[in-house]
Specification:
This protein has 454 residues and is an alpha+beta fold. The protein folds into two domains: 293 residues, Pnp Oxidase, Chain A, CATH 2.30.110.10; 103 residues, UbiD C-terminal domain-like (3-Layer(aba) Sandwich), CATH 3.40.1670.10. The chain has eleven helices and 23 strands. Strands 5, 6, 7, 8, 9, 10, 11, 14 and 17 form a nine-stranded antiparallel β-sheet that branches. Helix 2 links the parallel strand 1 and strand 2. The longest helix is centred in the C-terminal third of the chain and has 22 residues. Bound molecules: manganese (II) ion. Manganese (II) ion binds next to loops.
């Protein structure tokens, strides 16, 4: 629909088949209802993009559940279902720096002073235990105070007043380091909160890439074209020219206030927070803007957004050092704390080596299960079957105690937890044979069922 403006949320939306969209035409309360709708859809095994056309009391529309399934995530980067890892890895070797300077529709409307009232934005309240209305879809763009290197990340923002949000930097990522450095220099950290971009940019923002890697250049690699940026009006930050909304402002140095609780990916409501404060300086948006919401908590979309790039990135690192690794899955049941890895061992101990690497690469992980490559790591039933039949607790497991972890794990203490590795691969001398139908019979059954439309 809009070819000349470059990748955008509305341009991507126009490419979606109508069968992949659930439009809610009735007037809808943004408090709790969109979240309940996506949670109910997931129980039914469905994950359409949800468009709330008439949010009660706000200008619409609000769009949610973009990242609700893997096939749609693969399509966002031009890949077939199952092709996301390859597309992600290809993008890493052709990073495309963003281009700054073009004016864009993000500045169609510019609100400053008392007009920059964030409470008028269609921001939802998600879970019963949440402290208030939250933006979970905001991509926070900031710069390293020393080098100017840009950084993109998601951080939850609790609406606290017309020009004030509470913000938690609990993942202790690059933005947290940038704020600490700004505080050392006696300055606030300028931040632009970007809402509503082409979802490939949203995926790049979710990735844990190197400190000096501009996530916009990762997005450029994924899109096959440089992201066009434009300068903010009140801060020295650049944002996508086609973004739907941008909130310009700064995180205050050495200022802390209560923030949370908020429903997090762990499935728990948590007030574990760095308790920072973000002050709004300006709000800009497109004409007839689309507000993008990410359903938080233990939703498929929240977990997949974090997992898709995490799996691809960690898998690439792991295979560099352990080429016998075949596949990696972060199952939804494990939030971000469990991983299943399959491998084809050519020497003893390679399962342990791979699991040690994995636990070292990803501090979120608490449990790793290794299986042989005849087991499909994306089929949790197969993994647990391998655990039931190929694992003995006296010789096939090890622990790493008091290791750095994600603090949102409610069972962790003081930022550390114990990591567990279970080796459910077969050992040398293994003689048991899997009971499977013959290949010929399998083909016959598949043909028969296909003919019957099953
Ligand atoms: Mn970064």
């Amino acid at each position: 629909m809009i070819d000349d403006e470059g990748p955008s949320l509305r341009g991507w939306l126009a490419t979606l088949p109508e069968s992949d969209i659930l439009r809610v035409a009735e007037e809808t309360d943004l408090d709790h209802n969109p979240t309940a709708l996506v949670v109910e859809l997931e129980k039914r095994g469905r994950a359409p993009v949800v468009i709330i056309e008439k949010p009660r009391g706000f200008a619409g529309p609000v769009i949610a559940n973009l990242y609700g399934n893997r096939a749609r995530i693969a399509a966002m980067v031009g890949a077939a279902p199952g092709g996301f890892n390859a597309a992600w890895n290809a993008a890493q070797s052709r990073l495309l720096p963003a281009v700054v300077g073009r004016e864009g529709p993000v500045h169609d409307t510019m609100l400053t002073g008392d007009d920059a009232d964030a409470s008028l934005l269609p921001i939802s309240r998600h879970f019963a235990g949440d402290a208030g209305r939250y933006i979970g879809s905001g991509i926070l763009v900031c710069k390293n105070p020393d080098t100017g290197a840009r950084n993109l990340s998601y951080q939850r923002l609790q609406l606290k007043g017309p020009r004030k949000f509470g913000v938690s930097l609990h993942s202790r990522g690059h933005i947290w380091e940038n704020l600490r450095r700004a505080e050392e220099l006696g300055r606030n950290l300028e931040v632009a909160v970007v809402i509503g971009v082409h979802p490939a940019i949203g995926l790049a923002a979710a990735a844990k890439v190197g400190k000096d890697v501009d996530e916009f250049s990762v997005a450029g690699g994924l899109l096959g074209q440089a992201v066009q940026l434009t300068r903010c009006r009140t801060i020295d930050i650049e944002v996508p020219a086609t973004a739907e909304y941008v909130i310009e402002g700064e995180i205050l140095a050495n200022t802390h206030e209560d923030e949370g609780p908020y429903g997090e990916y762990t499935g728990y409501s948590t007030d574990r927070s760095t308790r920072n404060v973000f002050i709004v300086k300006a709000i800009t948006h497109r004409a007839r803007p689309i507000f993008h919401d990410i359903i938080p908590g233990y939703s498929a979309e929240h977990l997949l957004l974090g997992r898709a790039t995490r799996e691809a990135h960690i898998f690439l690192r792991l295979q560099e050092m352990a080429p016998w690794v075949r596949a990696l899955n972060y199952p939804k049941t494990g939030t971000h704390f469990h991983a299943y890895v399959s491998l084809r061992q050519t020497a003893q101990g390679q399962a342990r080596q791979a699991m040690t690497l994995l636990l070292g690469l990803d501090p979120y992980l608490k449990l790793v299960i290794a299986v042989d490559d005849d087991v499909d790591v994306f089929d949790e039933q197969e993994v647990l079957w391998a655990l039931a039949t190929r694992f003995q607790a006296d010789r096939d497991m090890f622990r790493i105690e008091d290791s750095f972890c994600n603090r949102l794990d409610p069972s962790s203490r003081d930022g550390v937890s114990t990591k567990l590795a279970l080796d459910a691969t077969t050992s040398p001398g293994w003689t048991a044979t899997r009971a499977t139908p013959t290949r010929e019979a399998e083909s016959w059954a598949r043909r028969l069922l296909a003919e019957k439309g099953l």
